[in-house]
Structures are given as C-alpha cells and as structure tokens.
C-alpha cells in the first residue's frame, strides 16, 4: 500500500515510518519540520519506497494514497503554546485537508488524538465515554480544543461522507527520538540527569501520568488502522500510573546522576491525574503494552547518552 504519514519526521511519526517500511509499504513522510527533524528519518532515505516531503498540512495537497496517519501537530506544551493560533490551524484545517484527501481517494485515515481531550479529568481512570473537563479559554486550549474539533470533524466526515476513520486517543508516550529540548517530562528529566543539572519538578510531584513506551504505542496505531471496522475513539497508552516524583527518582536511579530535584511552579491547567482505561483497545485490537517503565527508560537513557556525547 501507499501510506502517508503526516508529522512523519517527528518522534512518533518516525517510528511509525520505520514500521511501515519494514512491513513493505510505500511511505510518504510529510512534515513542515517545526518540531520534527530530518535526522529522525535519514536512515530511511535510501529506500526507494520512502519519500520525504516538506509540506504544511494547513495547506491542501493532492496525493494518491491508501492510508493516512495524521500525526502532524506539535505535542509538547512549550511547542504547541509557542504559536497557539498555528496549533489550532494545524489541528482543524489540517484535519479538513486530510479528510478531504481521503474522501476523494477513499483512503482510510487514522487521527492521532490525545488524552488531553479529557482535560483535567474528574473521572479516573478515563474511558472513551467520558466527555472530559477542558478549559476552553486556557493556554492548553489551542491543543486540547483543537484535538477535540479534529475528532468532531472525523466523526462528521464519517457520518456525512462515509470516510473510513480511526481515532486513537494517545496517552503520554516516551522513547528514543524525543527532541532533547522538547520540554516534556521524560526527555527533560533524562537530559537534566545526564548533564547533572537540577531536575525541574513542577508543583509537588504528586500529579500522575501513565507512560507508554513508543514501540508499544506504534504497534497499537498500526493494529487500529488495519482492523477492518471504522471506529470512533479508542484509548491507547499504558495504564500503569506513576507520580512525577516517582518518575524523577527512577530517572535519577537509572542514570546514577548527582542532580538535585528542584521544585518549580506548576504550569497553568496542568492535569492532576491521568490514567487510561484500555479495555476497549484490549478487546478490539487484542493489544496491551508490554514494556515496563524501567526497561523503556533504560532504552531512552541510552539514546540520549549517545546523542549528548555526539553533540
Ligand atoms: P512531535 O512534535 O515530535 O511530532 C509532530 C510532527 O508534526 C513534527 O515532525 C512536526 O514538525 C510536524 N508538524 C507540526 N505541525 C505541522 C504542520 N502544520 N504541517 C506538517 N507537519 C507538522 O510530536 P509526537 O510526540 O511525535 O506526536 C505526534 C502526534 O501524536 C501529535 O499529533 C500529537 O498530538 C499526538 N500525541 C502524542 C503524544 C505523545 O505523548 N507523544 C500523546 C498524545 C498525542
Ligand atoms: N513536568 C515536570 N517537569 C518538567 C516537565 C513536566 O514536573 O520539566 C510535569 C508537568 O507539570 C506535568 C507532567 O510532568 O504534570 C507531564 O508533563 P508533560 O509536559 O510531559 O506532558 P502533559 O502535561 O502534556 O501530559
């Protein structure tokens, strides 16, 4: 098949391109290189089946494809808040352009949605029927509400135009190829620990997240795309919940770092708790994550060690 991956030079997108090339597909990796890097997919450039395209999904594009994975959107709060209007445009106009392409070509499309559609949840753990608790006018809204509108568009193109859709609500994912200055907690803590700099812990560290290793997550996206039913949102993530303090201590232990934990102000609208209910994914996709946090962190630390030495 010919597969389009928008945001393909980013963290998740580049791992997805690896898998699709391994499976024998033709892959078009489309990216505007806002947070993605050519180096993430450089090793794929020698494949005749791989094509790298600089394009911004807020602009329409004509391509003939069988599958679209729509991943284009900065995922880290510091990046998506850098130009919030652009973030909304990417989520909304990008979704319209990609859904239009699929309506025309009859391609199947998967949307990389997010646990952020649940906002600061009042239901715990979160399952797909929960409508969320999102501040519509806060500094995270450009991302949260943008992703919510994208889900609406996907459902409406499905109901109105029979576009064959999949929606994956992705929970916090980490692993090699996260950008070292990405600003997300796993990459921040690892880079700080490896440099023996202070660990920037926002708030009291009691807030929780559930961290999924990238290989597990990419497997789920691929399974979701290739199961035959057109479906609405499905949570994908690792349901094992950790406090941010626990994460900091685990990173310090694995790196053997002498860094000190320093408490800093908590960012506006920072969700207190987050844990996916993945019953639906288990049922539908026969999928569950299998990489434990310690093992996944060890692999991520090894990646950053190499990167920092090289730089
Ligand atoms: P990332 O920032 O590494 O990758 C996003 C990619 O999209 C980058 O390569 C960037 O250059 C590209 N991009 C951004 N705007 C674009 C535009 N207008 N046109 C074309 N390309 C554009 O982030 P990631 O972690 O790989 O996330 C990928 C997707 O998964 C995002 O849609 C994100 O919202 C979603 N997601 C990720 C996580 C996670 O924990 N990593 C969690 C939930 C959802
Ligand atoms: N966080 C932190 N230090 C950092 C970066 C993040 O303590 O250097 C906290 C942040 O406040 C949040 C959690 O870690 O409670 C996860 O943040 P991230 O930006 O990785 O993901 P998201 O908030 O989007 O889930």
Secondary structure elements and their pairing?
Blueprint: E1 2-6, H1 11-22, E2 26-31, E3 50-54, E4 67-70, H2 77-80, H3 84-105, E5 108-114, H4 141-161, E6 165-170, E7 173-174, H5 185-194, E8 199-202, E9 208-210, E10 212-213, H6 214-226, E11 233-236, E12 241-243, H7 244-255, E13 261-264, H8 279-285, H9 293-310
Parallel strand pairs: 1-2, 1-4, 2-3, 4-5, 5-6, 6-11, 7-10, 8-13
Antiparallel strand pairs: 9-12
Helix pairs in contact: 1-6, 3-4, 5-7, 5-9, 7-9
The structure holds nicotinamide-adenine-dinucleotide (NAD) and uridine-5'-diphosphate (UDP).
Ends apart, CA distance between termini: 37 Å
- Which structural category fits the helices and strands? alpha/beta
Strand arrangement across the biggest beta sheet: 3-2-1-4-5-6-11
Q: Let me know the largest β-sheet.
A: 7 strands, parallel
> In DSSP terms, counting alpha (H) and pi (I) runs of 4 or more, how many helices?
9
In CATH, the architecture is: 3-Layer(aba) Sandwich
| Radius of gyration based on Cα positions | 19 Å
């Amino acid at each position: 098949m010919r597969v389009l991956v928008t945001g393909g030079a980013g963290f998740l997108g580049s791992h997805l391109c690896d898998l699709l090339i391994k499976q024998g597909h033709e892959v078009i990796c489309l990216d505007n290189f806002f947070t993605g890097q050519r180096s993430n997919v450089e090793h794929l450039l020698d494949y005749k089946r791989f094509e790298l395209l600089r394009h911004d999904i807020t602009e329409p594009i004509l391509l003939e494809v069988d599958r679209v994975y729509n991943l284009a959107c900065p995922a880290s709060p510091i990046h998506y808040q850098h130009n919030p209007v652009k973030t909304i445009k990417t989520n909304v106009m990008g979704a319209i352009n990609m859904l239009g392409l699929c309506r025309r070509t009859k391609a199947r499309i998967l949307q990389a949605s997010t646990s952020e559609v649940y906002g600061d949840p009042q239901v715990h753990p979160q399952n797909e029927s929960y409508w969320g608790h999102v501040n519509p006018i806060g500094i995270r809204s450009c991302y949260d509400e943008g992703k919510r509108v994208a889900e609406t568009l996907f459902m409406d193109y499905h109901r109105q135009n029979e576009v064959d859709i999949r929606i994956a609500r992705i929970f916090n994912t980490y692993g090699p190829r996260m950008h070292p200055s990405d600003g997300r907690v796993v990459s921040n803590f690892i880079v700080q620990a490896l440099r023996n700099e202070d660990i920037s812990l926002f708030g009291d560290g009691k807030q929780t997240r559930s961290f999924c290793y990238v290989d597990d997550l990419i497997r789920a996206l691929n399974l979701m795309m290739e199961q035959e039913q057109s479906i609405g949102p499905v949570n994908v993530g690792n349901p094992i919940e950790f406090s941010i303090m626990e994460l900091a201590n685990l990173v310090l232990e694995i790196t053997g770092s002498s860094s000190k934990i320093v408490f800093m102000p908590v960012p506006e609208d920072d969700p207190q708790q987050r844990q996916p209910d993945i019953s639906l994914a288990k049922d539908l996709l026969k999928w569950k994550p299998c990489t434990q946090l310690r093992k996944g962190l060890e692999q991520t630390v090894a990646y950053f060690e190499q990167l920092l030495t090289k730089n």
